[in-house]
Amino acid sequence: MVFSSLFFIFAFLPATLILYYSLGKQLRNIVLLTASLFFYAWGEPVYVLLMCSSIMINYCIGTLLVRDDASRQKRKFFLIISLVFNLGCLAYFKYFGMIINTIAPIGGWNLNAGTPALPIGISFYTFQILSYVIDVYRGKIRPQKSLILFALYITMFPQLVAGPIVNYGDIESQLADRSINFKKFYSGMQRFLCGLAKKVLLANNIGLLWSEVKAMPGTEISVLMAWAGIIAFTLQIYFDFSGYSDMAIGLGKMFGFRFKENFRYPYTSQSISEFWRRWHISLGSWFKEYVYIPLGGSRVGKWKLIRNLFMVWFLTGLWHGASWNFVLWGLYFGTLILIEKLFLQKSMTRWPKIVHHVYLLLFVVIGWVFFEFSNLTDGLGFLWIMFGVGGNGLIDNQAIVKLKAYAVLYIVCIIAASPWPKMLALLFKRIHCNIYRLAVNVYYSVLMFFLTTYMVSSTYNPFIYFRF
């Protein structure tokens, strides 16, 4: 089940909200936990058992870590059990085929291992479980005594299948007691509709262009067409993923939770390092907290800094998928960030802003080529076409036709990926507060009508991060 489906919006969500608010405060967590398990079982009925097993095992380990008779060796042993179990499940379901198919040629074995069906959201909820167990081990948080509340933390459907990754410490108090009022609920509904619009109206439509370009033979793609296509993907993946995060944050508010932001206009960044502080913030924070800082962070010598960065970015790439193109993509950005830290940081302060933006967008767009093409040969071939080697020349009529057809959508996407709309809205609110309130209500009513109409008539509704 996805948020951008008619069943979710007009059946599952209303039914859950009605039960949640009508059955009283004492049953709200039970309602939300039951709804979350149903939500997951809708597409993954078998893997609900895996998730429940993981919940039970890690709940018990969290309790064992703080027992009075638990020595340091025992606590470390329990932590290792949790790491082995959780990372073992992730490795088996996500990386088994990749591991076997990589080592088989080295050993001269004739194997072609298929990858088991990937449980949706396993990368996200595994990281949440790991952060909980590690923080209990470190003494940063107390273990959750209630199995129901711990299970709710892991299974909560607003952020279960595609984040943001929520640390237990950030919502510990909210699990037991949270304030709910109409203002927060209405704000959450608005945030959900904004995210839904990003996904349905922008990501899906600009993604159609990329799907057409990607399906074309390389000999028929001009330089202009290649850039038009990959820029379309650059916009698609942003609106696809940030739209989902907006919907998750909005849903959280509707149920009384506050989730941290996951995107802050990343394409307006001035450097690669800043871009990754603004893109998928919860994942970057997780790797910083549980990998980068334990390795020593940046307060080490040059060679250890290189090791730390490459370790983090190797794992970041690998987290995104069981394919070597993701590892290459991760190491690509790790290398760029290392170059900035060691060589460019001082000189970049003297660059004009336009140079910063060109530099940032150029390397990010190139990076999305590595991300999108699982076959490295195809990806490198597409890069060659982008820079004028092979392909169908510099400009062709087909590219011009496509650009004319998508020109308005490009402009809307570029504006929507910037803070300008929000800044203008706040300015208008300051000048005409009463008119602003009326305009907002009309806007969201009209937006809901268009979203419903589009979802009824459209069949193209992919979600990129579901495969992670």
UniProtKB/TrEMBL annotation:
Q: What class of enzyme is it?
A: transferase
Per UniProt, which keywords does this protein have? Acyltransferase, Cell membrane, Membrane, Transferase, Transmembrane, Transmembrane helix
The subcellular localization recorded is: Cell membrane
Quote the InterPro entries the UniProt record gives. Answer: Ac/AlaTfrase_AlgI/DltB, AlgI, MB_O-acyltransferase, MBOAT_fam
The GO terms this record gives for MF are: acyltransferase activity
Name any Gene Ontology BP term: alginic acid biosynthetic process
One GO cellular component this record assigns the protein to is: plasma membrane
**EC number annotated for this UniProt entry:** 2.3.-.-
**Pfam families reported in the protein's UniProt record:** MBOAT
Coiled-coil annotation reads none
UniProt lists the family membership as follows:
Belongs to the membrane-bound acyltransferase family.
Mind telling me what this protein is named?
Answer: MBOAT family O-acyltransferase
